[in-house]
């Protein structure tokens, strides 16, 4: 032991309590095991035990099997410790994981009195300080601790371990209870204290899934408050979770998973499904506060600020099948359901077989996030989506413009959020709406036909021939190629650019009616502001009485610009969707 920790381990005295036997009984007094040299100097010894009586099997010792059979301990104080880098004072080389540390073996009797166990974990920001006792009335653990700064009470109960009567199976209950986080497990082990092999029913709650992850260490993100229940099994170092049910915020979840731990990595495989699910529930309150601060600083945005940084799951791999029957949103949205396969492999995340059901139609595609390039700190996003069978009205209900809608998005960019990646991205966004209806007033005004735009009835409609919008994106700058709206009344085109870094619009609109107009707005109209809050810049001369007179004079004198012709919607659709 001294050689193992690099410090002198001492035994005050040792004696044998029986005569010749293949199950000898030994008494040790004043056993002291100092902490390894690298442990924080303020911590007490790793182990200090006033007295320990133990018996073991000579045959087990000789054959390499579990040898200890009976243990009686008085006045033991243990101090376990893990550094922020994961180094453990009780297992410095990972041998515990490989050898099955935690197996209770053939422990036939355990008595513990006047003893305490302390644990300080700098890596997971958690600690505990509990009293441990074991006698004819059972095994008991009582004390407290901290999990990410939140206070918890820690209790444990197990059947008495006396003369082998508690073997196969050995029932137990352990509970960690606090206001912010709690975890309880009622189960059994094949033999007493066989921590490497157990099964039972688990229940948990937390203000944030990250708090619960500090207990189970599965690499889970921060979320809204959670309540979960599941059947679990452990066969060291792996966990199996069955019949998982619970809630995250206003979302419900169910499913199953297997967590396999090897060489410091966790692999999670399984399936999750939900009847109702809100993606906002995957952001903790802290994350929402950060997003609100960004929104207050930058103003309203349409591109999501969702984080795509994989740093917090760099040691997590796995694959999950996801299904959501009803998507929940804080406002109006055409997106109704979702299925996907999610795989994560050494900081490469891929969402494949993605299908989002909509009010009408669907959106399908893939998303990849790659954070393996050590030459740059931010991850790479590759997003490819195709829209089919949708309707314009479902996306733009306030505009009352309807028609069939198809589209596609392909973009590649680097950034710690989706908005950052779009703001530095390269790719294309294309939308094509066909054969629908548009309010007549809207069509007239888009064609800069002020006279008809101001006099048309609110309920009058025109035929929408096509809406074609293709944006070529380079370095976060999106440029129309082309963008136009063609109705039976007018044709409107746009050019300029959109800066996706700040969503600023720098566009010019040019509309033309298809019939002579009495009041026609000359020139072009500037479109500034942001995507979420556009600002139309009408030429100053049109706002005055003189401007109106000039428009009338131009109409009378025949000086108006040429009328528009129907666009070739079929050719424009092919151009946009290429």
User: Which sheet architecture does the biggest sheet show?
Assistant: 28 strands, mixed
Strand pairing plus helix content: what structural class? mainly beta
Number of helices: 11
Instruction: Please tell me how large the radius of gyration is.
Output: 34 Å
Share of helical residues: 10-25%
**End-to-end distance:** 71 Å
Low-confidence stretches: 94-104
Residue fraction in strands:
over 45%
The counted number of beta strands is: 28
* CA-based shape: elongated
Kindly report the average pLDDT value.
88
Give an account of the 3D structure:
By secondary structure, this protein is mainly beta. Among the domains are: 1-147, no CATH class; 371-578, no CATH class. Helices cover 14% and strands 51% of the residues. It has helices at 2-5, 58-63, 95-99, 209-216, 285-298, 392-395, 418-423, 440-446, 450-455, 545-557, 569-576, and strands spanning 10-16, 25-33, 47-56, 68-82, 109-121, 126-135, 138-147, 150-158, 170-177, 181-189, 197-206, 226-235, 238-248, 251-262, 265-278, 316-328, 335-344, 348-358, 362-370, 380-391, 402-414, 426-439, 461-474, 477-487, 490-499, 504-513, 525-529, 534-537. It has a 28-stranded mixed beta sheet, sandwiched between helices. It is elongated and about 120 Å long. It holds the Pfam family AsmA. This is AsmA domain-containing protein. One of its GO terms (cellular component) is plasma membrane. Residues 245-479 form the AsmA domain. It comes from Novosphingobium sediminicola.
């Amino acid at each position: 032991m001294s050689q193992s920790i690099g410090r002198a381990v001492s035994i005050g005295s040792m004696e044998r309590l029986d005569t010749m036997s293949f199950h000898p009984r030994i008494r040790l007094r004043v056993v002291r095991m100092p902490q390894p040299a690298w442990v924080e100097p303020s911590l007490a010894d790793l182990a200090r035990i006033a007295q320990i009586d133990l018996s073991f099997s000579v045959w087990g010792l000789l054959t390499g099997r579990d040898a200890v059979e009976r243990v009686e301990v008085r006045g033991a104080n243990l101090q376990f410790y893990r550094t922020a880098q994961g180094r453990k004072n009780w297992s410095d080389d990972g041998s515990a994981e490989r050898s099955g540390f935690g197996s209770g073996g053939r422990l036939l009797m355990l008595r513990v009195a006047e003893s305490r166990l302390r644990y300080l974990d700098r890596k997971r920001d958690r600690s505990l300080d509990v009293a441990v006792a074991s006698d004819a009335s059972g095994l008991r653990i009582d004390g407290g601790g901290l999990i990410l700064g939140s206070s918890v009470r820690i209790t444990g109960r197990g059947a008495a371990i006396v003369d082998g009567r508690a073997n196969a199976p050995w029932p137990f209950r352990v509970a960690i209870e606090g206001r912010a986080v709690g975890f309880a497990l009622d189960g059994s082990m094949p033999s007493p204290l066989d921590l490497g092999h157990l099964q039972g029913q688990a229940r948990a709650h937390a203000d944030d899934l990250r708090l619960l992850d500090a207990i189970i260490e599965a690499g889970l993100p921060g979320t809204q408050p959670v309540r979960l229940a599941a059947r679990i099994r452990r066969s060291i170092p792996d966990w199996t979770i069955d019949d998982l049910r619970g809630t995250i915020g206003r979302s419900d979840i169910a499913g199953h998973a297997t967590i396999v731990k090897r060489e410091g990595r966790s692999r999670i495989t399984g399936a999750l499904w939900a009847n109702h699910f809100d993606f906002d529930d995957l952001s903790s309150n802290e994350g929402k506060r950060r997003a609100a601060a960004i929104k207050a600083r930058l103003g309203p945005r349409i591109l999501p600020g969702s984080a795509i940084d994989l740093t917090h799951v760099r040691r997590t791999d796995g694959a999950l099948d996801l299904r959501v029957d009803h998507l929940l949103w804080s406002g109006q949205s055409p997106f109704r359901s979702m299925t996907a396969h999610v795989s994560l492999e050494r900081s490469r995340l891929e969402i494949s077989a993605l299908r989002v059901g909509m009010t009408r139609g669907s959106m399908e595609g893939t998303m990849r996030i790659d954070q393996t390039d050590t030459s740059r700190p931010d991850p790479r996003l590759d997003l490819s989506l195709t829209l089919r069978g949708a309707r314009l009205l479902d996306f733009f209900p306030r505009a009352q413009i309807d028609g069939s809608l198809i589209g596609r998005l392909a973009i590649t960019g680097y950034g710690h959020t989706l908005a950052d990646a779009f703001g530095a991205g390269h790719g294309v966004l294309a939308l094509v709406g066909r054969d629908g209806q548009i309010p007549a007033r809207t069509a007239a005004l888009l064609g800069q036909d002020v006279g008809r735009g101001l006099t048309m009835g609110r309920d009058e409609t025109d035929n929408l021939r096509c809406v074609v919008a293709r944006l070529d994106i380079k370095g976060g700058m999106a440029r129309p190629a082309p963008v136009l709206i063609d109705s039976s009344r007018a044709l409107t085109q746009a050019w300029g650019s959109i800066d996706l870094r700040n969503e600023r619009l720098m566009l010019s609109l040019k509309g033309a009616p298809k019939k002579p107009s009495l009041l026609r707005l000359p020139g072009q109209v500037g479109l500034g502001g942001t995507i979420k809050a556009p600002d139309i810049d009408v030429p100053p001369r049109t706002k005055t009485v003189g401007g109106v007179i000039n428009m009338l004079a131009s109409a009378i004198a025949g000086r108006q610009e040429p009328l528009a012709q129907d666009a070739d919607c079929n050719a424009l659709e092919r151009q946009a969707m290429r």
